[in-house]
Amino acid sequence: MKKSSLFLCIALPLLLVSCSDDLNQVPISAATTSTFYSQPNDFIQAVNAVYSDLRTYPDRQLNLSETRSDNLYAVSDGGVRDWEGINSFQKTIASNPYVTEAWATNFNGIYRANVLLDQLKTNGAIITTAGLRTRLEAEARFLRAFFYFDLVRWFGKVPVIDRPVVASQALTIPRSPLADVYTFIQSDLEFAATNLPDTYAAADRGRATRWAAKTALALVHMTRSGPTYDIEGPGLGLNEWDKALTLLNEIIASGKFSVLPNYSDIFSYTNENNAEVIFDVQYATGLSPVVGSTFAWLLAPDTWFQANGKPVQGGLSIRPVSNDLLKSYEAADIRKAFSIQTGYTFNGVAETQSFFKKYVDLTKVPANRVDWPINFIVYRYTDVLMLKAECILRGKTGGTQADVDAIVNQVRARAKVPAFTNVTFDQLLQERRKEFAAEGLRWHDLVRSGQITTIIPAWIAADDVQKRMLPFQKDYILYPIPQTELDVKPGLYTQNAGY
Question: Which of 58, 131, 314, 342 could form a disulfide with 295 if both were Cys (CB 3.0 to 4.6 A apart)?
Answer without folding.
Answer: 58
